[in-house]
Amino acid sequence: MNQAARRPATRFLLDRPPLAVSAWAVVAAFGAYFCTYAFRKPWTAATFADSTVWGVAEKSVLVVAQMIGYMLAKFVGIRAIAEISPRRRPLGIVALIGLAEASLILFGVAPSPLHVAGLFLNGLALGMVFGLILGFLEGRRHTEALTAGLCASFILADGACKSVGAWLLGWGLPERWMPAGAGLLFLGPACLFTWMLSKVPPPGLEDLEHRSERTPMGRAERAAMLRRHFVGIMAIVAAYLLVTIARGMRADFAPEIWKALGSPAAPSTFSNSEILVAFGVLIANGLSVLIVDNRRAFFASIGVGLLGCVLIIAALAGHQRGWVGPFLFMVLLGLGLYLPYVAIHTTMFERLIAMTRERGNLGFLMYVADAAGYLAYAALVLVRGWLPVNGDPLPFFLNTWWSMGILTSFSLVAAWAYFAARSTVPVPAEVGV
Q1: Which residues partner with 52 through β-bridges?
Q2: Where are the transmembrane segments (predicted)?
Q3: Considering only Cβ atoms within 10 Å of each terminal Cβ, which end of the chain, N or C, has fewer?
Q4: Inter-residue long-range contacts of 263-268, CB under 8 Å, 24+ positions, other chains counted
Q5: CA distance 82 to 102
Q6: What φ, ψ does residue 232 adopt, rounded to 5°?
């Protein structure tokens, strides 16, 4: 894309130094998605204790309802995010956030069990926002650092938004109206950060030289990319599916997990633990921007994912032997889960496109992975609602995390072996070490 093709609205950033543009972009992306989480996660701070819907624990039903909506949005996004033009992204973000707030109002006003539809529609509205924001960051020399900043937003927001939800509940806001109240607090900032995103210019010529041009993808292009790299992509998708399940349980049932660990969480606990997780994940994944060679960066990101698996197993073993307390356990577990999760967001698919010089975009691959991950998580949470856990969910969570840590390791090793054996994957001559 040449300079003449750039949108007029971005001209005031075109003559700025690349680092200034990157700083603007990461602040805008971080802020926009942080605010998006305020429409998705505060309600999980409520426990809906001793309440059932259709004979199942109400919170499990609500988690599944929102997750099914979110999952369906991911399937829609496989096509929609791959094909959308850049100029339509800002309007799409604002429209989807507006629909998410309307759905939370429905959640508050509708009688049970119709209120469940409110969270389903909420997930359906929010499921494509991440892909729209990600489109502003991909294909750049600093993409890993930018995307690491974006991913730090949902790590921090997960805890911060629970803290906001707990704070609103402490002020007496009913559990059913708390989510809409939290969303209203962030509606203005969400629009501001989206406006900032709309001013981010497309990748420049040097970005295109080091990475590759990112273009909308039709059905034929999507099918061709999957066909050429099917086994390797599916191995990464499998790893992503597994950590999505494990991460989702830690996030959606955080109050129950903290209580089961013997340390009921105060509102600040959610934020404090996630600040440490976000810092570690941001450093580990953001530093991959320093690796210029796309192939080496790709394999380094798989190594980061494997490090996360080691931390998951270490956290579980330490808890089992009584070596780590609840806070350290949740931090180590969070680091272990988010390292591979964020590495796939920031580096694996980004460098895969760059090293193969595929014509396409990061959003397509991410939404293939997201659709699979959230489908599996929704199914597991639904099953968990019927399990005889006798009021103590911790053994179920611990056993699941053990399985996820081991299986994720196997998936990442399989992806490494597949791409390492492919001598046909090109390494562009102009990209140095």
Answers
A1: 57
A2: 21-40, 60-78, 90-110, 116-137, 229-249, 269-291, 298-317, 323-344, 364-387, 399-419
A3: C
A4: 263/325, 263/326, 263/327, 266/166, 267/45, 267/162, 267/163, 267/166, 267/167, 267/170, 268/163
A5: 27
A6: -65, -45
In one-letter notation, the amino acid at residue 216 is P
> Please, what is the average pLDDT of the chain?
85
**Per-residue model confidence as pLDDT tens digits over 161-211:** 888 998 999 898 998 999 999 999 999 999 999 999 999 888 877 777 777
Q: 269, 195, 201, 200: which is closest to 31 by C-alpha?
A: 195
Query: CA 218 to CA 230: how far, in whole Å?
Result: 18
C-alpha 71/C-alpha 11 separation (Å) is 37
Are 281 and 151 within 8 A, CB to CB?
yes
382, 251 Cβ separation under 8 angstroms: no
- List, in order of start, the domains of the chain with CATH numbers: 16-420 (1.20.1250.20)
The one-character DSSP state at 358 is -
Tokens of 296: 């080496």
Question: Which amino acid is it at 29?
Answer: A
Exposure string over 27-51, b if 16+ CB within 10 A, otherwise e: ebbbbbbbbbbbbbbbbbbbbbeee
228-242 per-position pLDDT tens digit = 899 999 999 999 999
Give 315-371 pLDDT, tens digit per residue.
999 999 989 998 899 999 999 999 999 899 888 998 888 888 877 778 888 889 988
